[in-house]
Structures are given as structure tokens and as C-alpha cells.
Amino acid sequence: MLLSHLPRVQLVHAPTPLEFLPNLTKALNGPQIYIKRDDATGLATGGNKTRKLEFLIGDALAKGATHVLTQGATQSNHVRQTIAAANKFGLKASVLLEQRVSDGTDEYYNNGNLLLDEILGATSIEVVPGGTDMVAALEAKAKELELQGERPYIIPGGGSNAIGALGYVSTAIELINQLNQIQLAPIHLVHATGSTGTQAGLLAGIAATHSNLTVLGISVRAEKSKQEENVYKLTRATLEHLGLSADLIAREKVIANSDYVGDGYGIPTDSMVEAVELLARTEGILLDPVYSGKGFAGLVDLIRQGHFTKDDKVIFLHTGGAVGLFGYRKTFSNKDAYRL
Ligand SMILES: *Cc1c(COP(=O)(O)O)cnc(C)c1O
């Protein structure tokens, strides 16, 4: 499948590694577990949004934009990667942060991604209350910038539209090539799903290439039926954007599991803490508290429940975000300090 006619910039250190996890596989005594390292995409500590930004920044430049606008939660990985990508291509960046988590610690509101946002130097960082209509807020901000003579380009939350999802169409092709090289089957792909672009792009790429790979999204926010409907819609829109039939995606291939959200978006769960520590202590790999930690907690629990056979090969797509750990220090460590 050709993506070469679509505007794109180069950001990702591709292909990201596909690695076997021998110690974790042994510890869980279930299927063979692999990891696709999209935490290592390379832009300002990496993550999955960099995949989408290759196409979003490409489109912004093709349209003559001078200024990108986006939004996310306080500890948004997407916002951090968007500012970095804008810097690299000489675009200004303004961001709106929704205070979706209201009872975080001081570190949540100052450290982690937010510290990096400041170092990266966005043109403006504005915080708005949780529950704000972020789509309307971005449009209002774009109007304001237009009056100042800017040519704004709106990137939706999480970079999840039919353009951003192309980043994961391209990742599906990259992964399929890696699987063919090492002759790995049958395959189940598992990852954290939020604003849906990652899962929709993967499903569009897998459907368009008629590949035999299942995808399971572990939701970090919405309940199952809503998440599946949103992923399904964006998968169809992405296929159409590629000039393909939206009907290539069968509704039953869109599967989300919302059993690991806990009390809500960005609120820690015991299983997330256990999952972060488990992968760190078996394989030396760091997950994040909001997305990949909950996604991995879902995978670990499903393996323990016998959801996969011993012959199955499971790939966890690591979507990044470990710098978010610095916003959640007290969730992982009660120590005051090691200073003498
Ligand atoms: C945004 C994000 C996700 C979710 O991806 P979507 O495309 O928004 O569904 C998963 N993991 C991390 C670390 C993220 O930042």
C-alpha cells in the first residue's frame, strides 16, 4: 500500500525495535511476549504521537501554516511531542491543557511532561478547567491567532484524525515487515487506547493489507462500546482518506476492553503500579502511569486469566510516556529523600 503521495515529514527513528521479552514470558508462564518499542520513536523522549505528527506536520506545512495549536491533559505526551515537532519545522506552537485530573500532587502540575513543555518553549501554554469544550476552545484560539496575522493549523487532541492515524497505518506496515522477517505467527497486538488514532491506524493498515493480526485496545478512559464505536469511525475515515473502501474494516475486528480504567483517566490503579514495576523489574523497560501502564496491566491480567494459549505470540505496543512517571512520584515512592 502506498502512502508516498501524502504530505509527510521525517521524525521517527524507524523502524522501532521489535524485541522478545524472555524474563516476562517466563514470569507469567503464558504466551510468548514481544514488545514493539514506540516509546523509542526518538522525538524529545519519544512516544506514539510522533508517528501521527509526521503526517500532521506534513499537512500543516503543505497548507502554509505558521502556527500549530493543540490540546491535551496536563501531563499530555501528545502536547509535548507536538511542541517538539513544531520546533523542528520552524512552526510556532500554542497549547491548551485541560485540568482533567483535579487532585494530583504538586509534581503532577509542574513536573514530567509539563516541565518538558516549558523547556521546549511553546509560544503559549494555557490551562483550562476540566470539562471545558476543548474543540471549541481550540477554534476560539485559532480565530484569535488569525487576527494576529498567523496561519493556524489545529491538531486535534491526541493527533487523532484521519491524517494523524496514517502514522499507525505506516506502523502496521513496518510491523508486518518485521514479523515476516522473523517469521512470527499467530499474532495478537495489545496496546493502550485513548483518543483512538493508534488503534484506528493499525486496524486500517492491517485491513488494507489483509493481514492476519488481531488488535486489542485497553481503554484508559471511555467505556467499551463508546471506545469501540469511536475507533471504528476513525478506522473507516482513515481508509476513506487513503482512497480505499471504508467497508474493508469489519466492525467485529474493533475490540476494546475498558476493565482497567479504574476510577478514571489519569487516576492510578493498583494493577497499573504492579504492571509498571513488573516490566521494570523483569526487563528494565519503563511504562507510563496514564496509558501504557494501564494497557500493560490489562495484558498481564488477561494472560493470568488464560485469555491466550501458550502457542500465541503477543506483542505489546509500547506507546511511550515514561516521563509522566515524574508527575506521579508519590504513587511509586513514599521516600522523602536520599540526601544525607
Ligand atoms: C496518547 C497515548 C496513547 C493512546 O493513543 P491514542 O492514539 O490516543 O489512542 C497511549 N499511550 C501513550 C503513552 C499516549 O501518550
UniProtKB/TrEMBL annotation:
Q: Where is the Tryptophan synthase beta chain-like PALP domain?
A: 10-320
Keyword Manganese included in the entry's annotation: no
Q: Say yes or no: keyword Signal present.
A: no
What does the UniProt keyword field contain?
Answer: Lyase, Pyridoxal phosphate
- Entry EC no(s): 4.4.1.15
GO molecular function term, any single one: D-cysteine desulfhydrase activity
Q: Which family does it belong to?
A: Belongs to the ACC deaminase/D-cysteine desulfhydrase family.
- Please give the name of this protein: D-cysteine desulfhydrase
Instruction: Name the source organism.
Output: Acinetobacter oleivorans
